[in-house]
Amino acid sequence: MDELKIQLEERRKMVDEKATKYRILRDECNDNSKKFTITRNEMNGEVRELIVQVREQREIREQMNEIVRDKKAVRQEANKMVRESKDALNLAKGPEAVQEQRDDGRRGRRDRPDTVHSLKRELIRLENEFEMGRHTGKNETKVMKRMKEISAQIKKMKMSEDSNTDLKESRETLRIAMEAQETAHGAVEQAAEAAQEAHDLMLQWNKEVDNQREKAESAHRKLRGSKKDADKNHRAYIVSLRCLHSIQDILRAMRGANAGAGQRPSARVEVQDLMSKLMSGATLTTDELMQLQRYD
Question: Over 50: is that where the pLDDT of 134 sits?
Answer without folding.
Answer: yes
